[in-house]
Target: Transglutaminase-like cysteine peptidase
Amino acid sequence: MSRIDFLKQTKRRLLAAAGIGGAILSTVAATHSAHAFPQLNLPVMSAAILSSGGAGPTPAWIAFCKQMPAECALDASEPAVITLNSETWKLLAEVNERVNATIVPVTDQDHWGVADRWDYPDDGVGDCEDIQILKRRVLIEAGLPRRALRMTVVIDELGAGHAVLMVRTDRGDYILDNKRSVVLPWQETGYRYVKREGSENAAWVWLGNQAAPIVTATK
Model:
């Protein structure tokens, strides 16, 4: 049995009782009510990232949207930013940590035998974009607007392409990332920001390759 098959089999047994997203959401709800996570102070106010015109999505995103069009739909009646209060900040931190701990990171090449595929990690393994897509689904199920949760393409600290989830808030734009357990303002990730889903229509927007200072990858 290959390593990938072993990981899939193990995760299936662990998550067989419920869907991954539902299981994570249930766990987050339980920890919320039990106060298992410490109270988190709200981050200081920071500037939102600037966009500068339209950008084409990746071919893998286009294929994902053809397969699951509802996942890529934009409802203009939803808020484009969320009000970041203490409960929402705690929710973001918990979902980021829980999903990172639940999904085993593997490349698309090892997982699917292709260079790039965006999909839900329903078998318990996936790469960066799969993990962020799952986080977005859990957050939407918890009541946050899809329009404020934007899939984003960056260049990471190794110079490689990487996907993160950008949460647009009234205190700035924050990043959920499978490389670290904490949620950071976009300026503190050390990444170069290439493009993200737009907030006005289905098109993506160019972020101008804006750079953020380098920070450690784990904290």
